[in-house]
Amino acid sequence: MTYTGKPYILYEDGKHTTTPQVLSVNDKKTLYCRAQGWPKPRFRWLKDGKQVNQIKYIRTFLKYKDGKDLYFPAGVAKTDSGTYTCEAINKFGKDQYKILVLVKGLYLVCTNCCLFTSFFLYICVFLKKI
To answer: What is the pTM assigned to this prediction?
Structure first.
């Protein structure tokens, strides 16, 4: 018997990516999404509510396997953190599944570099005079 109607996401083991995903910078990751329905659903990925292929700052995404899965071939970066939504869509409607992605890693931000550098230059000059 074939199910006809709105697609539905499959939550079986190995058929979808669990949430949340805690990753490290440069981890290569695939987000999996599976759904059934007839007509066969098409898939769309969103990040923080915006369609992935329309976000200018997203680096290198590759969709594969009929567009079902989202792959980070260059590894993830801090900017890839967010809520990803897989939508399965056909003429009868849609179903969606959200995956929270958190990318952790060490990064340095210097807000007072000039002040910090000036202080140490002053100390170095002062010590040379002694």
So the answer is: 0.73
